[in-house]
Specification:
- This protein is an alpha/beta fold.
- It has one domain.
- It contains 3 helices and 11 strands.
- Helix 2 runs parallel beside helix 3.
- The termini are far apart.
- 25% of the residues are buried.
Length: 189
């Protein structure tokens, strides 16, 4: 039998869970930045693949593809040729520059990929709920007037409606679709 919780206990549990998720995401983000810094110190070592795509030089380290655009380093799980092409019109990365970005994701790796790459550009990134959806946790409710990335299971597509980007696909394909989205807005692909 489940213990009946009062509203204040439920609220405390939700806040605790939100804090735990936030701390985990921060550890992952700082760990990836630390990994990039440590990895860049030993750039002369063997075992690293360099490949060029569309004028950009990619470095494969530990199964991740790294590329520098200006002063910013981006990290992807998939090389651009491994991702699907999207012909949909998406606003480029400047749309996110120094603005809050909200993310709803049904797949943790895709969410981490967005955080790891766009945290360097957006003013802040935080989880949120879409105004029409029901979601667990104490997250702000946002609409397409906000910069909002929604990653969920569904028929494979990447679309943009106002400031909402919908990345939909089968669970095992969501990370690849997220990389496709990031390559598109960065004008790499």
């Amino acid at each position: 039998m489940r213990k009946i919780l009062s509203k204040s206990e439920q609220e405390k549990k939700r806040k605790r869970n939100s804090i735990i998720i936030g701390v985990i995401l921060m550890i992952v983000m700082f760990g990836s930045v630390f990994g990039v810094v440590v990895g860049s110190l030993g750039q002369g070592s063997s075992g690293k693949n360099k490949m060029e795509y569309n004028g950009y030089e990619f470095l494969n380290e530990n199964g991740l593809w790294k590329v520098s655009i200006g002063e910013i380093n981006f990290i992807f799980r998939y090389f651009p040729t491994e991702t699907t092409d999207t012909t949909n019109i998406l606003k480029n990365v400047n749309n996110y520059y120094n603005k809050p970005l909200y993310v709803y994701s049904e797949e943790a790796e895709s969410e981490i990929e967005v955080y790891a790459n766009l945290q360097q550009i957006a003013a802040r990134i935080q989880p949120a709920c879409f105004s029409n959806e029901t979601c667990e946790g104490d997250f702000p409710i946002k609409t397409c007037s906000d910069n909002f990335i929604i990653i969920e299971n569904g028929t494979e597509e990447i679309t943009q409606v106002e400031n909402c980007v919908y990345i939909k696909g089968e669970k095992q394909e969501l990370l690849k679709l997220t990389d496709s989205f990031l390559y598109k807005i960065l004008d790499i692909k």
